Amino acid sequence: MAMPEKSSGANPSEDCSNFPEIIELNVGGQVYITRYPTLISIPGSRLWEMFSVKNPCSLIQDNKGRFFIDRDGFLFRYVLDYMRDLQVTLPDHFPECGRLHREAEYFKLPDLAKMLALKMNNLNSVVNDSCQIDVEEFSPSIDATFNFSSANNIHVSGPDNSVVLRAATGSELKKSGFITIGYRGSYTLGRDIQTDAKFRRVARIMVCGKISLAKEVFGDTLNESRDPDRPPERYTSRYYLKFTFLEQAFDKLADAGFHMVACNSTGTCTATHDQTDDRIWTSYTEYVFYRE
């Protein structure tokens, strides 16, 4: 008689009252392994509530026995670092402070949320300082009054003139650059070339280019799991999209001001069906987009 498979995550006692010393977590599809004392190290936090107030049987587990938490699996690494050391070190040019701040609030970590809020305020102050206008350079011969409106308009009033300037928002300051998207496909072609080819669906659309441009264009639809935490000024060829429709990728690039400047494709016959003589072809296609 086959014995039931032993869970790789929690191994509770019969009354479901105890957690093991080593706990496996599945956070948004990412697996983490940590000690039980780490998860209850901050009283009042959401993890403390889950693993001290509740029992193992009351928590959701995946098919391998790991405790499942439906949150951002990549940002959880910083939450877990904070639970261990009460401090967190973020990479240079970290672009996800806002999302990590939301995760800190969800996990009820007020001190971490305050640290991130301070970091975001400092970043915003740097941006504001870089947008200051030199009054003397604008009009050295008059006393000008500057009024900033919520619509990003700057009203400049003086004795003899009244001018309205518009301050560009961050979304309007778009950088030039290239983005290449590529995909591998396959199709089957029969002996009679007049017959319709049998195309298979696109398995994955890959993205190559500058990280800041890729994130600007594709946003949350960009899968960064193969190349996480890279600074925005660096380049990558390991990102791919969470959807598999080329037209959807083209629409996003067009909306962001990109236009296609080149494309290429290669095809190779990889196999032949023994009974039907159908040939299976594989191809790789790239589209190069540019924004001035």
If you had to describe this structure to a student in words, what would you say it looks like?
It is a single chain. The chain contains eight helices and 13 strands. With 292 residues, the protein is of the alpha+beta class. Strands 7, 8, 9, 10, 11, 12 and 13 form a seven-stranded antiparallel β-sheet that branches. The chain has a three-stranded mixed β-sheet with strand order 2-1-3. A three-stranded antiparallel β-sheet has the order 4-5-6, with no helix packed on it. It is flat and about 65 Å long. The protein starts with 21 loop residues before the first strand and ends with a strand. The N terminus is likely disordered.
The residue fraction in helices comes out at 25-40%
Which whole number gives the mean pLDDT?
A: 78
Low-pLDDT stretches? 1-15, 133-144, 148-152, 167-172
Q: What structural category arises from helix and sheet content? A: alpha+beta
- Content of β-strand: 25-35%
Query: What about the largest sheet?
Result: 7 strands, antiparallel
List keywords for this structure.
single chain, disordered N terminus, alpha+beta, 292 residues, 26% helix
